Amino acid sequence: MGDIDAIRRFLDESTVEPDVIARARTHALEVGAAPVSPAVGAQIAVLAAATDARSIVEVGTGTGVSGLWLLHGAPRATLTTIDCEPEHLALARRAFADARVPTTRARFITGRAADVLPRMNEAAYDIVLVDADPEGVIEYVEHGLRLVRPGGTVLVPRVLAGGAVADPVRRDPVTRAYRSLIQETRDSPAVLEALSIAGEGLLQLTTIRHD
């Protein structure tokens, strides 16, 4: 694992993070919100830009790091972000204000994703990012695949669980959840799947068009 760890460190150190995102990262570390790595942030920004995303859902706001990366790549998008921690959402609002993101482009919802996602419109979004409650990740991804338009993208950071997913000895609930997610999406005829080892890992799922 030494070479892989070195590659991940190199990727993070080579990623230039905008100052406003770096400040949001500092706040995240202070409150234990566990932000996505710079390398994963850069990847989701590129994916948002490549898909010309206009409507994005984020499950797990944290202090705004991943949301700011998504809007960095898709400056015309509207982001709906969900978190159950009011303190984290308050810090995210401040980060978005510091980044001069118009209030019309960011909608903050305080609540449990399991309660909020079922009420959201089907096939209405370009990207859904799932970064909350690892043990519920399969349920959230199922909702995400329902919410994205045909050809839309669901992104799941942290899916390698710090390397635990690749260790057959590990059987804890988080590792099993991520391992099951990877297997189920890999075997699904409804999605295309790609798995990146950058940072903490990023699972990329695109729904297959049938038109």
Task: Write the SSE topology.
Elements: H1 2-14, H2 19-31, H3 38-50, E1 55-59, H4 65-73, E2 78-83, H5 86-98, E3 106-110, H6 113-116, E4 125-130, H7 137-147, E5 148-157, H8 173-187, E6 191-196, E7 202-207
Parallel strand pairs: 1-2, 1-4, 2-3, 4-5
Antiparallel strand pairs: 5-7, 6-7
Q: Give the overall shape, derived from the CA principal axes.
A: globular
Number of strands: 7
Which blocks of ≥5 consecutive residues have pLDDT under 50? Answer: none
Taken together, the total number of domains comes to 1
Along the chain, the helix and strand elements come as HHHEHEHEHEHEHEE
Q: What characteristics describe this protein?
A:
211 residues; alpha/beta; Rossmann fold; 7-stranded mixed beta sheet; 43% helix
Structure description:
The protein is 43% helix and 21% strand. The chain is of the alpha/beta class. It has a single domain, classed as Vaccinia Virus protein VP39 (Rossmann fold). The longest helix is centred in the last third of the chain and has 15 residues, at 173-187.
Characterize this entry briefly.
The protein has 211 residues and is α/β, with parallel strands linked by helices.
